[in-house]
Amino acid sequence: MALQCPFCPYTEFDSYAVIQHVECCHPETGDSPFIVRQDEEMSRSDVGYNEKLALTFSENSSQDEEYFECDCGEVVRLFDINSHIALHEFEETVVSENASSAILRRNKMTSMDDAQADLISPADDGTFPSKPTSMKLHKQRSRGKHHKSHYRHHGVKDLVDVMLASKSSRSRPKKTIVKDDKPRRLGKSELGPFAHEDQMPRWLLKQLEMGAPTTLANKIDHNGKLIRVESTANEIRHIIPVLAQLCEQDRTVSKAYLCHPDVRHVVKMKKEGGFCGYRNIQMVISYIQDAKSQGHQHFPGKLPSILQLQDAIESAWDKGINAFGRVETGGIKGTRKYIGTPEAQALFVSWDIGCEGSAYCDTAESQAFPKVLDSVEEYFVNGTDNMSRKVSRTRLPPLYLQHPGHSLIIVGLEERKNGSLGLLVLDPMFKPSPAILSLIGIRFNSTAPEKLLKAYRRGEDYLSRYPNFEILR
User: Count of alpha carbons within 13 Å of 418, Cβ hemisphere only?
Assistant: First the structure.
């Protein structure tokens, strides 16, 4: 049973986590030793700038929101700190050296080349699509009778209408949405701790200009040919086939759906901060590139950098596409301001890549997250040709998911044997664990698939914390 903080609405199943929360957020002296206050802010002008700031709500917000700098360099809201730390723990999951207690057992009878040929195939029938798939939701097709989610369907508002009528989903958790027909400048609660900066630090700008390190290696493809492959350190390929095998082997899963396997897991570089929106856009583009989907001609080489994406968003605003974003952000070029679904949508529309946005909000009668799960289930069911398999590997594009303070890429959906639904996601804030990396490109049998899947699962415990969501597809 979830425990609630006696001083605020914060809830957590772990009693020790609640104690930590109280010590950190509600200290007896009125000042927690774990939070750096605004009067301790140091100069931002040099490379050695210590980014432990007292980060509060903007002046147009009625309450303060506090942030904490994690050792990874990410500035995280205290509201999310426990789940953030837990996901760091999952990053460190390793394979035991003791064969008798190992997390996984490799199938030694399978060669890596043969395995890759099967594992990288996106469709149920093992073939690649003959036509590229756009980001638009597939038209509904009859699939016969299938399990209906135990959540009820509710109305969905159009994304742009919600953006123009209220704060964007960058808004803080459980904040009432107030109608306001005119876009206004947003603050730290929506744009993050650097909402009012004119220019990011020089060292970070240089790091983004250089990009992640790349390496060249000779590899043998599944046809036995020697090929030269360039790899980028923060782009991990073939994670989706690993997740598919783990779902197949998890006995608590009754049905699972995975998107096209050509989605790369793009993770942030060290100390780069809150560029999750841009990293998620890069993940969508990785699908477009590798699957030769609609708009792939715009991306002939490497993935666009964060700085290039900023330029492209500003250009989309110049064309009048979701131009209210410039008013809300004050401009994003060269800054660390958070971006959201409107900016991602403006980007894809400017490149003539079909996409649709939907918003889901809490109401007096129901929470938003069941509507999200129902919508994602419908999306995958409509794009699945073979419902008889436990795990359906589809040709569908990934989905861009935004909730207050963070965004993720939805790459799948699970239905558990208890009837509950949960998302499978790629989070740009966290890198794959050594255990997951060791499984890429092989067939394997895992003795603890649920342990390896934890970092990718977002179920009711996580989703119920947030009052509104947006999905771009």
Answer: 5
